[in-house]
Amino acid sequence: MARAAMVSLTFDDGLNGTYDFAYPVLSKYGVPGVSGIITSRIEPDHVDFMNWEEIDKLAGAGWEIASHSVHHVRPIDVPVSYAKEPIKEWTLVSSDPPIYRGHYDYMLLTGLFDSGRPLTAVADAKELKLAPGTYFFDRIYESVLIRPFKTPEYPTQLDIRAFSYEREMEQSKKELADHGIEVKTYITPYNYWTDEAKEASKRYCQFAATGEGLANRPGNFDRYAIKRYMVHTNDTAASLIRIVKENTVDKNSWVIFCLHSIGDNTGWEPWSSENLDKLIAWLKQSGIDIVTISGGAERMAKLAPGK
Predict the structure, then answer these.
(1) Which of 121, 143, 162 is the last residue of a domain?
(2) 12-49, pLDDT tens digit by residue?
(3) In this structure, are 91 and 229 located in the same domain?
(4) I want to staple 112 with a disulfide (CB 3.0 to 4.6 A). Which of 117, 119, 215, 290 is the partner?
(5) Cα(20)–Cα(22) distance, integer angstroms
(6) In 253-282, which positions are buried (b, 16+ CB within 10 angstroms) versus exposed (e)?
(7) Using an 8 Å Cβ cutoff, are 97 and 218 in contact?
(8) Where are the beta strands (DSSP E) in the chain?
(9) Do residues 195 and 225 lie in contact, with contact meaning Cβ atoms separated by under 8 Å?
């Protein structure tokens, strides 16, 4: 079998089905998987997701634990970089207590910082009167109302920053590293990728995986835009085997499947554990290597033209 002929199985979001159903199937065949973790959704805060003990067990079994961001957002929905985090041109709208309004250009606001200190979101603008260090995101008027920790002499002295996509990458990696997990790979939420986000990712990971529904070949391999095939609930094991035959076997390529939850009804497009078992059984019988993303990417780099 040619060295580029391999398959990876990625399980996005860190859902319970990854540990409860996918992990036993992969363990049965002695192969590794990849779990993309959304760090803000780790149990006990979110009951549909794995806890740290389960994540650690996957890592100990040879799985790759990848960053899948903190809040699972697209780079077009929040400021893409640290440089674009500052919110400027504040207007004082109330003096007792001091409340300021600033324009915010993005669809989502996952966090706000006042001189580096996180502000607390409130559900209603009236709640800003209860405590300093709070904010309200007014989606209708594309603005943010804040009550800062300290009242500045002038609104221009406010140092308010929004949670950027670049911060998503750096902080999620740090949170995993704080639990002893080495992160080499970033998996893009929604498989959405832009040139600016891709460039920023080079500061925080060795590899980045997205979508596109294509195989990876030595001649055009991009370690910061690794392609994956989306797996839907109605896909059969036979349909995935066909993709492997047409690409991995016939064209000496690396096929990566993007799955979510396995064996239950949580998450986006869950897949059955029976289908997963059939797919892996065929891969093992066919002698096709099943690798992690970092392992596959390191092999692909050695196969690049001129190597």
Answers:
(1) 162
(2) 999 999 999 999 999 999 999 999 999 999 978 789 99
(3) no
(4) 119
(5) 6
(6) bbbbbbbbbbbeebbeebbebebbbbbbeb
(7) no
(8) 6-13, 34-37, 64-67, 86-87, 91-95, 98-103, 112-114, 117-118, 120-121, 134-138, 143-147, 160-162, 185-187, 207-212, 226-230, 254-259, 289-290
(9) no
| Contact between 174 and 182 (Cβ < 8 Å) | no
pLDDT in tens, 157-182: 999 999 999 999 999 999 999 999 99
Counting other chains too, the contacts that 92-99 makes at CB distance below 8 Å and 24 or more residues apart are 92/155, 93/145, 97/128, 97/129, 97/132, 97/147, 98/147, 98/148, 98/151, 99/128, 99/129, 99/145, 99/146, 99/147
Among residues of the chain, what percentage have pLDDT more than 70?
Answer: 98
Count the domains in the chain: 2
> Which of 139, 162, 185 is a domain's end point?
162
Could you tell me if 263 and 138 lie in one domain?
no
Q: Name the amino acid, one letter, at 55.
A: I
How many angstroms separate the Cα of 256 from the Cα of each of 121, 126, 163, 290?
38, 49, 30, 10
CA atoms within 13 A on the CB side of 135: 28
- What's the order of all strands across the beta sheet hosting 98-103? 91-95, 98-103, 143-147, 134-138, 120-121
Dihedral of CA 227/265/42/117: which sign? positive
Residues constituting the chain: 307
DSSP 200: H
230 vs 188: CA distance, rounded Å: 13
pTM comes to 0.95
Domain assignment of residue 307, yes or no: no
- Do 138 and 125 meet the contact criterion of CB atoms below 8 Å apart? yes
Do 11 and 100 lie in one domain? The reply is no
Give the span between the Cα atoms of 163 and 305, in whole angstroms.
40
